[in-house]
């Protein structure tokens, strides 16, 4: 579904070039959930922007669904740290925004928008304005806005980082359900190792800038996963500990597979 081959990204600047990514190879299978972690500035957002078609790689190849990514695609949605809702539009109208942008018939998508709001527990708020909602509720609206276009790929750049711990956990559980129901391929950038392990099939660790793949940790734990007491808690904790070690030590763990999916 997503393929990056030998991808490098260099930004030009007045103080000289900044090499954000170097020779990155990654294959994300259809329906897979990948988390990307790494030190601040290692190129995580750059990686998402390349997949989203918001940026063209300096060298290398980026493909989605077998096609080279040359511009943003309608079947790829991206969600950022802040919900970025339009303050003068109701919740429902914010969710329907991509429908208008793409010139799709609004009436046909209204029912879908209502269903999405229902799914995240916000149907009774559909006439409200964004400022009447909490941060977590606003981020749920942003999630519905991303899902209205029925994306095959959902890219998320630290979507829950501005939220309190309990809301984050709640949204993480909802996101897993959505992922299972919609079967979208998800790439999540996060600073939280626990969140990465809770959500992802594989956690990709980037090296400090220039970002390259340091290691990939597989999380072989059935879904839905929660952080409470359950049979798999020890497995999740082991994956978290491994990632903390890798990121703390900034060194590769011998014997890890590379980022090519073992489909
Ligand atoms: N448009 C740009 N022009 C110049 N440099 C850029 C640009 N975008 C990103 N960079 C640089 O590329 C590097 C990687 O940035 P990026 O935002 O991808 O990192 P990140 O891992 O997402 O960081 P963080 O975890 O802090 O959000 C940084 O050094 C950043 O300053």
List the helices and strands and how they pair.
Layout lengths: L1 E10 L6 E11 L4 E5 L6 H9 L6 E6 L2 E2 L7 E4 L11 H5 L1 H6 L3 H14 L15 H13 L5 E5 L7 H18 L2 E5 L3 H7 L2 E5 L6 E6 L14 H17 L14
Parallel strand pairs: 3-8, 3-9, 6-7, 7-8
Antiparallel strand pairs: 1-2, 1-4, 4-5, 9-10
Helix pairs in contact: 7-8
Features:
ATP binding, four-stranded antiparallel beta sheet, 263 residues, Rossmann fold, binds adenosine-5'-triphosphate, Nitrate/sulfonate/bicarbonate ABC transporter ATP-binding protein, ABC_transporter_ATP-bind, alpha/beta, ATP hydrolysis activity, 10 strands, nucleotide-binding
Tell me what the structure shows.
The chain is α/β, with parallel strands linked by helices and 263 residues long. It has a domain of 173 residues: P-loop containing nucleotide triphosphate hydrolases (Rossmann fold). The protein is 34% helix and 22% strand. It has eight helices and ten strands. Strands 6-7-8-3-9-10 form a six-stranded mixed beta sheet, sandwiched between helices. A hairpin with a 6-residue loop joins β9 and β10. The chain starts with a strand and ends in a 14-residue tail after the last helix. Adenosine-5'-triphosphate binds next to β2 and α1. It holds the Pfam family ABC_tran. InterPro entries: AAA+_ATPase, ABC_transporter-like_ATP-bd, ABC_transporter-like_CS, ABC_transporter_ATP-bind, P-loop_NTPase. Keywords: ATP-binding, Nucleotide-binding, Transport. GO terms for molecular function: ATP binding; ATP hydrolysis activity.
């Amino acid at each position: 579904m997503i393929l990056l081959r030998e991808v490098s990204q260099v930004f030009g600047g007045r103080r000289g070039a900044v090499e954000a990514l170097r020779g990155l190879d990654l294959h994300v299978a259809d329906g897979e959930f990948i988390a990307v972690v790494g030190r601040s500035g290692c190129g995580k957002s750059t990686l998402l922007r390349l997949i989203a078609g918001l940026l063209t790689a300096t060298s290398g190849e980026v493909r989605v669904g077998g096609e080279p990514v040359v511009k943003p695609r309608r079947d790829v949605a991206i969600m950022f740290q802040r919900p970025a809702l339009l303050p003068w539009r109701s919740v429902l109208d914010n969710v329907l925004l991509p429908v208008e942008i793409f010139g799709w018939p609004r009436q046909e998508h209204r029912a879908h928008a209502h269903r999405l709001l229902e799914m995240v527990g916000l149907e009774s708020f559909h006439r409200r304005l964004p400022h009447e909602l909490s941060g977590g509720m606003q981020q749920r609206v942003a999630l519905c806005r991303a899902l209205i276009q029925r994306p095959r790929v959902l890219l998320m750049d630290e979507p829950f980082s501005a939220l309190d711990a309990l809301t984050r956990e709640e949204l993480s559980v909802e996101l897993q359900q959505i992922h299972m129901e919609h079967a979208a391929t998800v790439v999540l950038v996060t600073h939280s190792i626990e969140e990465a392990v809770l959500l992802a099939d594989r956690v990709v660790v980037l090296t400090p800038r220039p970002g390259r793949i340091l290691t990939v940790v597989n999380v072989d734990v059935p879904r839905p996963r929660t952080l409470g007491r359950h049979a798999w808690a020890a497995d999740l904790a082991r994956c978290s500990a491994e990632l903390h070690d890798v990121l703390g030590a900034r060194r590769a763990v011998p014997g890890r597979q590379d980022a090519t999916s073992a489909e």
